[in-house]
C-alpha cells in the first residue's frame, strides 16, 4: 500500500501541470465568448489583445486625471458686445423734387435746392417725421428779378434765400389766419429776415419789407408737408436791403490869394491915392465939387 500512493498521485500532478501551462499560454482577459468568436485562422494579434481586453472589461469609474478635467476659462475683462439688432428702415418722406417737377413751372427753384444742397436738409427733416411748409416761387417769379440778382449772391446768401422760403412747421391754408408775425423761417432770424403773413378773406398776403405777394395756389398738402405757389421771390431785408451810401468827402478849403504888389509907373513914381481916386471919379465928380463951392459962395453973399 505504501508503494501505490505515489503512482496514483503522479498522473494527477501531470494533469494539473498540463492545465496550468494551458491557462498561462491563454490571455487572462480573453473570455470564452471571445475565444469562440475568433477562428484559429483569425486569432487576435498581440497588439489587438489589450484593446479588446479594455473593450470587454466591465466599465469602471477610473480616477479622473487633471488632463480629463474640463478647462475653466478665466473671466474676460472686456464686457461682451451685444449683437447689434437690425434697425428698422426709416420711412422716407415725400419727395419734394418729384412733387415740384410733376406740378411744372418750378425748375429754377428745384435747381437751386439741389445746387445748394438745401434739398438734403428738407429730406432729412421730413424723414424724421418733422413738418414743413414751403413757399415755392415759380419760374416767372425768378424771371421778374433784376438781371444778375442771383449771380451776385455768394453760396451762404443763396442758402439763406432758400431757407427764407421754408417755415419749420405745417400750416394749412386755413391756419394762416392764426399765425403770429413775424413768422419764423429757417433763415437766420426774424430781425434781418422778417416775414409777415396776413389774410383777407381767402387771400393769404405775404410781405418781406421789400416784396409784397400772395399765395396763388396749393401744390401739395398733407398732415406733414404743405407746398404753396407764390408769384414773386421773397427777398429778405438781410440780403437785399439797400445799403446806405457813404458820405461824400468834404471839399478842400480854398487857399487865399497872395496880395499883389502895387503897380508902379514906368518912371518909378507911385501914383498918390487921392489922384487915383480923382481919376477914377471922372469929370462928373469934379463938376459936383465945383457946383457945391458956387452954391456955398452965393449963400454967403445973401447972408451978408
Please, could you describe this protein's structure?
This protein is an alpha+beta fold and 304 residues long. The protein has a domain at 96-237: FAS1 domain (Roll), CATH 2.30.180.10. The chain is built from 10 helices and 6 strands, in the order H-H-H-H-H-H-E-H-H-E-E-E-E-E-H-H. The chain has helices spanning 4-25, 32-37, 48-56, 96-103, 107-115, 118-127, 139-143, 155-163, 237-240, 273-303, and strands at 132-137, 166-167, 196-200, 203-207, 212-221, 225-230. The protein has a 6-stranded mixed beta sheet with strand order 2-1-6-5-4-3. The model is unreliable at 29-53, 263-268 and 274-280 (pLDDT under 50).
Task: Throw out a few tags for this protein.
304 residues; alpha+beta; six-stranded mixed beta sheet; 10 helices; 6 strands; elongated
Amino acid at each position: 500500500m505504501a508503494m501505490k500512493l505515489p503512482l496514483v498521485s503522479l498522473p494527477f500532478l501531470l494533469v494539473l501541470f498540463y492545465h496550468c501551462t494551458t491557462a498561462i499560454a491563454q490571455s487572462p482577459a480573453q473570455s470564452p465568448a471571445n475565444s469562440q468568436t475568433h477562428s484559429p485562422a483569425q486569432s487576435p494579434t498581440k497588439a489587438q489583445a489589450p484593446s479588446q481586453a479594455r473593450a470587454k472589461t466591465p466599465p469602471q469609474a477610473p480616477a479622473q486625471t487633471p488632463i480629463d478635467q474640463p478647462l475653466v476659462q478665466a473671466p474676460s475683462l472686456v464686457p461682451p458686445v451685444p449683437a447689434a439688432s437690425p434697425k428698422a428702415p426709416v420711412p422716407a418722406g415725400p419727395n419734394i423734387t418729384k412733387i415740384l417737377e410733376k406740378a411744372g413751372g418750378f425748375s429754377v427753384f428745384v435747381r437751386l435746392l439741389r445746387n445748394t444742397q438745401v434739398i438734403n436738409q428738407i429730406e432729412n427733416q421730413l424723414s424724421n417725421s418733422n413738418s414743413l411748409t414751403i413757399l415755392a416761387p415759380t419760374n416767372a417769379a425768378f424771371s421778374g428779378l433784376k438781371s444778375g440778382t442771383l449771380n451776385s449772391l455768394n453760396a451762404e446768401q443763396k442758402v439763406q434765400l432758400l431757407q427764407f422760403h421754408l417755415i419749420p412747421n405745417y400750416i394749412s391754408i386755413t391756419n394762416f389766419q392764426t399765425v403770429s408775425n413775424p413768422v419764423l423761417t429757417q433763415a437766420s432770424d426774424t430781425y434781418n429776415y422778417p416775414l409777415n403773413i396776413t389774410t383777407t378773406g381767402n387771400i393769404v398776403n405775404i410781405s418781406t419789407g421789400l416784396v409784397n405777394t400772395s399765395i396763388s395756389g396749393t401744390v401739395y398738402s398733407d398732415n406733414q408737408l404743405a407746398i404753396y405757389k407764390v408769384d414773386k421771390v421773397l427777398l429778405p431785408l438781410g440780403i437785399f436791403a439797400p445799403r446806405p451810401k457813404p458820405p461824400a468827402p468834404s471839399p478842400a478849403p480854398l487857399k487865399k490869394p497872395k496880395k499883389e504888389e502895387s503897380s508902379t509907373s514906368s518912371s518909378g513914381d507911385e501914383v498918390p491915392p487921392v489922384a487915383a481916386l480923382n481919376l477914377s471919379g471922372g469929370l462928373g465928380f469934379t463938376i459936383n465939387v465945383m457946383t457945391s463951392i458956387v452954391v456955398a459962395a452965393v449963400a454967403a453973399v445973401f447972408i451978408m
